[in-house]
Write a structure and sequence with these properties.
The structure is a homodimer of 357-residue chains. The first copy, chain A, has 13 helices and twelve strands. Chain A has 357 residues and is of the alpha/beta class. In chain A, a hairpin with a 2-residue loop joins strand 7 and strand 8.
């Protein structure tokens, strides 16, 4: 088992990465002081892993809450059903909430933990690659709003992250690839040697080589932990982790939530962001090709859906990264070095058009 | 104008108390860096004060959001309408939200600010006595759930509190009295000389003597600021400010939200809590009489609604102050000195019965 830390003062926490961690009681025990726990998971993950986690929590009073699968689960009505189940089971402020599942479950359950009785403790137990490398770390929680993704949420740090790579064995190929998009994102934004490692090792990751997965997940968590420690609430440098996300969120919304997986939209969004970086004179054609080449080798889309550039522009204007009317984008100054820039609309439109060709 | 501070490190903030503060642009200007503001108020307060606040915000882009009046406004559907209005107006993360109104508006708008785009800055501009002495200070925000009051919420501190006592001139008598319940609560829980001052000055407060109101509000804010600075998230001493609230919440829920004002329910709840303290041997009959006498002179109910004690017990069992099955209550060790105790159900039942006689 590999363990690293997120340094946030008295809210610091460990990330454990390894095989078979899900069922190890000693990883949960330090957080069960209240004697009560609630596992939030979904209908796909529950038959696979719920029993093991419940057994690892033995000794505690455990409430099980199973929600639906997919991005459309991140909405108020589902959150309300989680509150209802917690209240029906008389879960108090000392109940430990365990988020068992992918990014959707982690975001939803994490937000439930953030606002239930003004905040209860929680653990992230991510079971998808996307959640293990990204969404389970750093305390971002949210649900979607009809007018935009992740519009309602909170920063609420978990007490620990327990990443069991054995759970990736049951992950559908499409979701594995979507997770790889976030792995690539960390590398492109922050770490050139990691880009090079990914270029060399993508086939191993795709065939779920255990050692390569642990190494890739650990590197992402290290990079993200450093950023989160420096800027927990995204006032500055943390925004760099949104590389590809302004375009990506617009793609997700434009295609209809759920049609594209988050990682797929981010992949196409990263190509657009790379193209934008090139149009701004920051990188050259060869870097743009390396970005789309790496994503292509991960089996990810490198072009957006068939949507008019104007529609994407319109969707991005409502994105929360818009500040004072001018859209801000994470661009690449080099592979492995992202930066935040305000960009004129026309440049953005050109990048969307160029990325589609 | 009197100004005092809530000491919370880099989230410290001032509380301004005085006459005519609502319309003073210089009190808002320091917080308008983003150039965008949204005023959340209700249909009763809007015709009285919205224009003045809007004018004080001149120079900023201002969105106005008017919700319904009353406790039933503190629910998800209304919150959702606030998010909708913020998103439709393209309010970003740098929008300053201004909560203009009583406790309901402050709780609802404060919670909206806590979770809109994972948190935006906000100001409390309380226009009721209850909000000025209690709910606007300390960062507690929430909405209600069908199964309990304030069950969904967050700790989110305002950037400042602007308490204009001139707004109390339009406050209905019943609401003024409900606010006095929270004034009495601060005194009974924390400050014997303040109890004595209230016993001497209640008539002046009831006839809205300006100087007495400022003095009473300031003392409550001082007491509360000290407690909040020591225990922002209610892990310990802050719970003392819930004197009368465990009973009070059950009364509110049992009578149907809105039938009793919060302050009225708290008043009857404080008599029950005083009776409980007597049953535990902490205080004597004379102290219980002083509690009910002071509340009676404020024109507040000193008995709960016609509900079976068992029904109140049942409602309290779902209250968030229940920990590990045993109900915890704020009791009085003396007038002006509250303490937290775990209490057996039978004692609680006896106190409810005794307080009804």
């Amino acid at each position: 088992m590999e363990t690293l830390g997120v340094a946030l003062g008295n809210r610091s926490y460990p990330i454990h990465i390894g095989r078979g961690l899900l069922e190890r009681p000693e990883l949960y025990r330090p957080y069960l002081g209240g004697g009560s726990a609630a596992i939030v998971t979904n209908e796909v993950v529950a038959p696979l892993y719920l029993r093991r986690v419940r057994e690892a929590l033995k000794g505690a009073r455990v409430t099980e809450i199973v929600v639906g699968d997919g991005e459309q689960t991140k909405r108020w009505e589902v959150l309300e059903s989680v509150f209802d189940a917690l209240l029906a089971a008389r879960c108090g402020r000392d109940t430990l909430l365990v988020a068992l599942g992918g990014g959707v479950v982690g975001d939803l359950a994490g937000f439930a933990a953030a606002v239930y009785q003004r905040g209860i403790p929680f653990l992230q137990v991510p079971t998808t690659l996307l959640a293990q490398v990204d969404s389970s770390v750093g305390g971002k929680t949210a649900i979607n709003h009809a007018r935009g993704k992740n519009m309602i949420g909170a920063f609420h740090q978990p007490l620990a992250v327990i990443s069991d790579v054995a759970t990736l064995e049951t992950l559908p190929d499409r979701e594995l690839r979507a997770g790889l998009a976030e792995v690539v994102k960390h590398a492109l934004a922050l770490d050139l040697p990691f880009v090079e490692w990914l270029e060399a090792n993508m086939p191993k990751l795709l065939r779920r080589d255990h050692e390569s997965l642990v190494r890739g997940i650990k590197r992402c968590c290290e990079l993200k932990a450093r950023i989160v420690a420096a800027d927990e609430r995204e006032a500055g440098v943390r925004a760099l982790l949104n590389f590809g996300h302004t375009f990506g969120h617009a793609i997700e919304a434009g295609a209809g939530y759920g049609a594209w997986l988050h990682g797929e939209a981010i992949a196409a969004g990263m190509v657009m962001a790379a193209q934008l970086s090139k149009n701004l004179g920051l990188i050259g054609d060869s870097e743009v090709s390396r970005v789309s080449g790496l994503l292509g080798r991960a089996g990810l889309p490198t072009r957006g859906p068939a949507l008019a550039p104007e529609r994407l522009m319109e969707l991005m204007a409502g994105d929360k990264k818009a500040a004072r009317g001018k859209l801000r984008f994470v661009v690449l100054e080099a592979l492995g070095r992202a930066a935040l820039r305000g960009v004129d609309d026309e440049r953005v439109r050109q990048a969307i058009v160029a990325a589609a060709q």
